[in-house]
Automatic annotation (TrEMBL):
It comes from Gandjariella thermophila. This is Serine hydrolase. Keywords: Hydrolase. SUPFAM superfamilies: beta-lactamase/transpeptidase-like. Residues 24-397 form the Beta-lactamase-related domain. InterPro entries: Beta-lactam-related (IPR001466), Beta-lactam/transpept-like (IPR012338), Diverse_Enzym_Activities (IPR050789). It holds the Pfam family Beta-lactamase. The lineage of its organism: Bacteria, Bacillati, Actinomycetota, Actinomycetes, Pseudonocardiales. GO terms for molecular function: hydrolase activity.
Amino acid sequence: MTSPLAVEVDPLEVGLDPARLARIDRHFARYVEDGRLTGWLTLVSRRGRVAHLSCHGQRDVEAGLPVEPDTVFRIYSMTKPITSVAAMMLYEEGAFELTDPVSRYLPVFADLRVFQRGTATKPITRPATEPVRIWHLLTHTAGLTYGFHHVHVVDEMYRRAGFEWGWPPDLDLAGCCAAWASLPLLFDPGTEWNYSVATDVLGHLVEVVSGQSLDDFFAERIFAPLGMTDTGFAVTEANADRLAALYVAGTDGRPVRNDAMGRAVLRRPKMLSGGGGLVSTAHDYHRFARMLAGRGELDGVRLLGRRTVDYMTSNHLPGGADLETFGRPVFAETPFTGVGFGLGFGVMLDPVAHRTLSTVGEFTWGGAASTVFWVDPAEDLVVLFLTQLLPSNTHPIRSQLRQLVYQSIVD
């Protein structure tokens, strides 16, 4: 189907200067012209209406197909906020408490051990002093990790078990959870922040608690109510021609096509990754972000109570710490200085420390292929940038996008 996404309001009506908004397009057009990106889409909406929408470059260079408003993108870790919303919808129904041990619902997470020293083949571990709780999954303080970090011995253990930029092909979500639970934690739950497979575990918790597969829960409880018709764990046959190709940064930073990873979304996966498995469009993700901006409600459809969204988008790191002081120095989808973490979102604490134009209380996350979104409640602003270049730290897209969006606000 053709996306209904379009500019809905004169920017000046919502306090945005059109000439200043045009700076966004000129700046990122250079990324395409000099070969840093193949193509991109950017959207800025304020007070619930799209004020700026632009596409530039190609969604598939080899086929000569342009980026269009209805292009389908792999959103990778921008799946995490959706999984977090799903979990909190069940929380609102009284299905669990945030302090519940995960093992109450997923028994494989009982009796976890923490890495002390040794090697990936001969680790020395001890019992964890605290069980992994649901709150730990939502905040990435569980002690889990990602194989692609290449920082800690446990990261290597994940890679040896088949987890780096994916998972063993014979495992489903339950099987992956069992594998992760068999590996040691990096630290005792609640003592540090480490970007990890925690949201994938959370997705399995959603399955067990709801009695539905994760894709069915998403489709029935989130996508259908919000009108997110093009979002899912696989691209439908009808939408395959709208799918952007996936590119990986080469040694010189230039995009190199990667169909081995890119074609995975053409069929329903065995492993439904709540941490990074979805594809979506600008129209659909904008609907999701606007629901969050509406504190759980959009166009008469309420997924969450306003108090729940406020709680999710508060900083949950102990003592009000930012990720720089409480997190491990690893790859993640946001810079660490001046940014805290809530239940599924990075939360801006200190724009001065962050060294980029931004607003206290805005919340955000991004995806591994350089996608990003944020919601600024104070400015009633939603921003979305979609492209397909792995990894997301190849270029300073996110900081530059912030400075260009915020300089356009003139009211």
